[in-house]
Amino acid sequence: MTPTGIKSFTEQTVLITGASRGIGAAIARRFASVGMNVVIHYLQSHESANETARSCMRHGARVLTVTADLRSLDQIERMREKLEQHGLIPDILVNNAGISHYGMLSDVTETEWDDIMNINLKGTFLMTRQFMPAMIAQKYGRIINVSSIWGISGASCEVAYSTAKGGINAFTKALAKELAPSAVTVNAVAPGAVDTMMMAGFDAQEKAALEHDIPAGRFAQPDEIASLVYFLALPESGYITGQIISPNGGWLT
């Protein structure tokens, strides 16, 4: 339940990182559908972010787009200052931004490793540290990290990505215990195969083989992942914290 003195759910602000397309854009649209304040973060995909913003505004939501390199504390701090100027400090933070990498570990360069860790894991840390103090102060908040099924089971030829997502899962569990006394929940959504641009590196035969391995017989749609994120953000989900929930069509049970 929303504590007394905290604004109602539809008056709250949600910040989604990496929201210009794919799962992030679907999450933004899901929150916008109930008229919430939506902050759409992106790095370089300016026009895609604006298109996501336009689709959110059609629901009557107040929308702000912000750009920042999540590897940079300075840029994150400037983003927070901009949100403060607009009165849009988030009650709900969705750490969705991330990059994937396919290839044998022996072929991964140190630079590639650092980028994967910095964008996926360090970015989640910096964003959370930046915005959780306001949640702690008001004794209410939601932090939802978008992880991956590979952060649970690991994947051959995706060692670096699996490591980063496994780190997010551990981060989620530990921080949930730290913030529970402040009524701030921390959960992770760890999808299986989702029909987004991250699947662009697979050809039709590889995609068909993947679908065959999934008991549900198909990839998830971004809207299905967005629905779970939305549920975890609800006031009535306040007793769910420290959980890694994997919508994967029965692929991993």
TrEMBL record:
Enzyme Commission (EC) number: 1.1.1.47
SUPFAM superfamilies: NAD(P)-binding Rossmann-fold domains (SSF51735)
Signal sequence range: none
Top-level taxon in the UniProt lineage: Bacteria
Entry's Gene Ontology molecular function annotations: glucose 1-dehydrogenase [NAD(P)+] activity
Biological processes, Gene Ontology terms: monocarboxylic acid metabolic process
Annotated keywords: Oxidoreductase
Family note: Belongs to the short-chain dehydrogenases/reductases (SDR) family.
Annotated protein name in UniProt: Glucose 1-dehydrogenase
Species: Paenibacillus validus
